[in-house]
Design a protein that fits this description.
With 456 residues, this protein is α+β, with helices and mostly antiparallel strands. It has 4 helices and 18 strands.
């Protein structure tokens, strides 16, 4: 710009001092100066535009780098945070029984929270009809790495402890596993006793009928939890060309049953989780043979002292499951024998020393397609109805407390249930009961149940 000003000054001086004969030359010189001015201004404008573009590019690059840094920070925060998802109710889940599962950033630690709930209504002869919040169970699971596991279940029955004394709140499961290999693993804690199938699989949302069989109430005192430790595992032996057989087992040393049994059953003999009434430990175990998917045969055994006089009680059980398409057949048999004490030494005059019972059950699963677009089927992937028929029988030796004959009760149950999804069910059933001598469960009173249950 200084050069332009100098040129203009020169032009002015020349114009004033040069004679008119040089007017043409001066005009040309003016044109040259004007052209130089325009050239300089054009170059200056181009330079300013270039500078502006460079500044804009630099700003965009800075914005890009800031955005990239922001994304990196988000990923770093995410990688250092626990992740969580709802996996649904799953009795075979690697962490507890499914539900809401949270995982540590490294993936080495996982924690699950789930449970189930069931609400019932019953109306039987000679008794008041009633609603009952039978179960609300909270289930926790945890893993540390791939080989250390915990499973806990806290059970609240009949609304929990209250003034009427009918409810309870207690530990049903609190066990820790140390996984070694498929065929042998260590377990300890408060364990569901592996005696029969239903004691291990009795959750309300998984059962097809509201009521449990009599044998699983009075002979096998389901839910039967013991404090103990032992081993479990599974393996697949190959027999010739047959490779489908799967064998699984559980075997534990536990505190065991005490002397609280009577001629109405073994429920009163379930021991304490904190102490034993004698210095002997009972042994209990179950082996399951599965020749094919949907078919199982279980064999169980129990033996242990039940009092301080060294008298023992022994038990055996057989259970089976066989699935044929929509038809499912299952059943369970159990027998216990208690050694009689020295009546003179113990001061006892008589005991119930034999306990026996069984049930057989058929389930038929079906779904009418014409219900697909109704409220029963709409928006559900696989809704199902199940028809159920069950027969059960139990007999217990008399202990001379109220009669001279053995106590016997049989029951036939017919029911139907509806599951819009696997772990939500509503059930309706009717029972016919018949009793000889003392009543074990319902006596001679017939009646019906309705219930609703959900696992989560």
């Amino acid at each position: 710009m200084k050069a332009v000003k100098a040129l203009l000054v020169c032009m002015l001086v020349l114009t004033l001092s040069v004679p008119p004969v040089y007017a043409d030359e001066i005009s040309e010189l003016k044109d040259m100066v004007q052209q130089m001015k325009r050239d300089y201004e054009s170059k200056i404008a181009a330079l300013e535009e270039k500078i502006s573009k460079m500044e804009s590019k630099q700003g965009k690059e800075l914005d890009r780098k800031v955005a990239a840094m922001r994304d990196d920070i988000k990923e770093e925060i995410k990688s250092e945070s626990w992740s969580a998802e709802y996996v649904g109710r799953d009795h075979d889940h690697a962490v507890g029984k499914g539900g809401f599962v949270a995982e540590s950033p490294s993936g080495l630690a996982k924690v699950s929270l789930g449970g189930y709930f069931n609400h019932e209504f019953e109306n039987f002869e000679n008794t008041n009809s009633t609603f009952d919040i039978h179960h609300w169970n909270i289930i926790l699971g945890a893993t540390l790495g791939e080989r250390l596991q915990f499973l806990g279940e806290y059970e609240i029955e009949h609304g929990g402890p209250d003034a009427s004394g009918s409810g309870s709140a207690k530990v049903e499961i609190a066990q820790v596993d140390y996984l070694i290999t498929d065929w042998i693993n260590l377990r300890g804690g408060a364990l569901l006793v592996p005696f029969g199938s239903m004691n291990l699989n009795h959750d309300a949302d998984a059962r097809d009928l509201t009521s449990r069989p009599i044998v699983n109430r009075d002979i096998i005192p389901t839910g039967w939890t013991e404090s103990g430790a032992g081993f479990f595992g599974s393996f697949e032996p190959i027999i010739g060309s047959y490779e489908d057989l799967e064998v699984s087992y559980e075997i534990y040393a536990v505190n065991g049953l005490d002397d609280g049994f009577s001629d109405t059953g073994l429920r009163g003999a379930r021991g304490s989780l904190g102490s034993d009434n004698n210095n002997n430990k009972a042994v209990v175990g179950r082996v399951v043979l599965s020749p094919a998917i949907g078919h199982e045969l279980g064999l169980s055994g129990y033996h242990g002292k039940y009092n301080t006089f060294g008298d023992a009680i022994s038990g055996k059980a057989v259970d089976f499951l066989s699935t044929w398409g929509p038809l499912e057949l299952k059943g369970e048999y159990a027998y216990f024998k208690a050694n009689e004490p020295d009546f003179a030494q113990s001061g006892i005059t008589d005991i119930a020393d034999e306990f026996e019972g069984y049930y057989v059950q058929a389930n038929y699963h079906f779904w009418p397609e014409f219900l697909d677009d109704t409220f029963l089927g709409r928006s559900f992937d696989d809704p199902t109805f199940t028809l159920i028929g069950r027969y059960g029988w139990t007999e217990i030796d008399d202990d001379s407390d109220a009669g001279t004959g053995d106590n016997e009760e049989e029951r036939f149950t017919l029911g139907i249930n509806y599951r819009p999804v696997e772990n939500w069910v509503t059930k309706l059933e009717y029972q016919w009961n018949d009793t000889e001598n003392e009543s074990l469960e319902r006596g001679d009173n017939n009646g019906w149940f309705w219930s609703i249950a959900m696992g989560f």
